[in-house]
Fold each of these.
Amino acid sequence: MKIRVITTGGTIDKVYFDATSEYEIGEPTVPHVFREAAVGVEWELQPLLRKDSLEMTEADRVTIREACEAAGETAILITHGTDTMSDTAESLIGIEGKTIVLTGALAPARFRVTDAIFNLGLALGAVQSKPPGVYLAMNGTVFEAGKVRKNKEAGRFEATGL
């Protein structure tokens, strides 16, 4: 199985620029994380966007959907900012014959203390084991698209009970 990894930006890829005291989205961190974890599954990186998810538009979601539909792989892992990840996941529902898993991080992957590595590992396992459909892999749980939301106060994702 070959996995398509599509990166769209978000906190997972943010870099802190001390001179300006600001964060900007940098190069995708997935290759570094996968290399350090000695990931043995075949995968291909497709950097698609470099956006904070709060800046994500419906046109961006169409671009992501088109990339998923055009991918030759049936397993697709997408890194995405957490604030609108649920919205993007819902926009991908209905793509036939593909398992699509979105993940991200609440702290940049380049930080010493981050959830990025754990979330990427969870997403990598989910994209290989779940049946076709769209999922979010965050906080140790794999959620079905359309049935999850980000609880900003608690700093985690939770099922909506739909």
Amino acid sequence: MSKKPSKSNNSPAKSASLQLGRAVEWPDAPEKARLDRVPNPQAGTDYLVRFTVPEFTSLCPVTGQPDFAHLMIDYAPGQWLLESKSLKLYIASFRNHGAFHEDCTVMIGKRIASEIKPKWLRIGGYWYPRGGIPIDVFWQTGRVPKGLWVPEQGVAPYRGRG
């Protein structure tokens, strides 16, 4: 007979303040979305966390037509980790948000950095063509911590048909 894992009352997933583990409303704008953080159990170790968002969507602020991007978010955690469900909800809040590629990419990077205060963070926004021109946008908080292995983001430049 197998024993079910015990659930601690002070588990981060059980915290009433987190969106994790319970139904929450989908935010309809980035400023209404909440990013949650949880304590980093490996805070004394330098390591890299990568979030890949291959289907990011926002709206062109001029035409209102959809824009699509592949986002890569890399960070070296400090005391906090970014909780992934809250990131999913935050990213989804851009679906009806009108902003230029550069603004969306940098806004996301700055917001995450301000919420979790990582040792280092970078975001790459690989946007699909608008008007025939793909736009790639990159932002980071500063220098990579010494000795931290940071792999390439691995998103090929847009090649179109060729």
Amino acid sequence: MKLYYSPGACSLADHIVLEWIGKPYEAVRVNREERKQPEFLKINPAGAVPVLEDGSWRLTQNAAILNFLADSFPEAGLGGDGTPKSRAEANRWLAFVNSDMHPAFKPLFGSTAYLGDEGAIEKSKADAKKKLRGMFATADAQLAGKDWLIGQRSIADPYLFVLTRWAKANDIDLSGLSNLERFFAHMLADAHVQKAMKDEGLA
């Protein structure tokens, strides 16, 4: 398998999962400018990472890739405990992180620059930070008494870790979210997480 990634992007979640699985894979770094070039656009016309290649087959979209990896390597236990309810819980929290939290960062990454009004742009960023604070508080409550979002390690955890890194880099208020902070420290101490981060130049 081959993973196309950009350092520190949401593709880091897939990178961590591949390390957790422990099977051979190749990681290919693609920077923002390279993602706009014809060579990469042939791989993913959307010009985005992650992309996972399995032989001649290519898969895009983080949630799809993470679920594919969990299903392809069930022995890694990243899709729940084998019961439908546990699988649904893994997907519930993956959906929360992927579909609710991730898009909420967009104003912080320039999506409202088109407004052309500095006051309006700054207001959109402040609103995003406030919304994200509430979402991280939801994750913090879910982590009470747990090391992982669903009580065992799953495909949702590395994605939350990535977004927590983004939150810290963008001055989102995480004060008082002690369960989240404990989770983040737990992830940072993981040797496989460290390996993926080192490979991406993030360590």
